[in-house]
Design a protein that fits this description.
Length: about 325
Amino acid sequence: MTRILTYNILVGGARRIDQIAQMIRSAHPDVVGLVEATDPRVVKELAERLGMEYRLTGNGSHQRDWQVAALSRLPIVRSRAHTRPGILSKPLLEISVQEEDGDELTLFVTHLTASFSYSVRGGDSFRRAEVREILRIMAEKQGTPHLLMGDLNSLAPGDALKASRLLRYLVHMDELRQAKPIESVGHPNLDFVVPPFLRFLEPLLRMIPRSNVLSALFDWAGSLYAARGSVRLLRRAGYVDSFRRLNSHAWGFTCPANAPAGRIDYIFASPELAGRLSACYVVTEGNGLRGDEASDHLPVVAEFGEHASGERDIGTNNILNADGARPIRI
């Protein structure tokens, strides 16, 4: 069995290495995809603490020099960084590892652009262009087991969105940015999400979380408004959304970690690999540490065994319960 974990560690994670390592260690992964791996020193230290090899798309030179990385307990036999200026907003990392049975598995780690405030559809056109390019790159692996993981900044068709919960978080981040600007670095705020031509509505938006009726209406409107095109492209190309394949009703929200409102972190398996999918879940805590103490995203884990299983086996890991709000232990 091979266990894969994808994790957005929030602007490099330099001040949260202990917490990030604890979250990862609690899941016992074989391979880890790190998003927002802007600090190569953090990646190296995590690899050393976890006893893993590591690969980076590049050495981040400043806090917003977005990079992705991979850690692996399994031998890394090849790695490559794909850069496409003007198409991919961040590099795409490709690594191939040798599984315990000797077979080779290729993994791609991505971080699609947010660009939520750049257009009325929240930057969906940019992300769809990125996905088309990623599909072109991955076409070389067609017919072989491989997967794509990372932060897609997009909802899947049919997935729920608690827009009012996200709005409450954004309003809080605005307040935090004014009071404690250093602590708010990397966290989104209202201006990050609301297009400039709609910012005259921000006073109204700040009122919505105070009203149950307005919050319910905002949840409904947000679900209609949220762009889902990039995930739809991956599904149409035959890639399997690992979490949704085994969890048809659970929300599986991954962000923001302290007020989960939507699922934007994914592990997509190729058809050849999907037949081995045996479990997929969201990690909400790490041996007593709350996920929001480590990052603003929650990690997602997928397990691939020798044969597909109709039942989900997650042992003592944590998942989000039906309302997506509180973790439960199974």
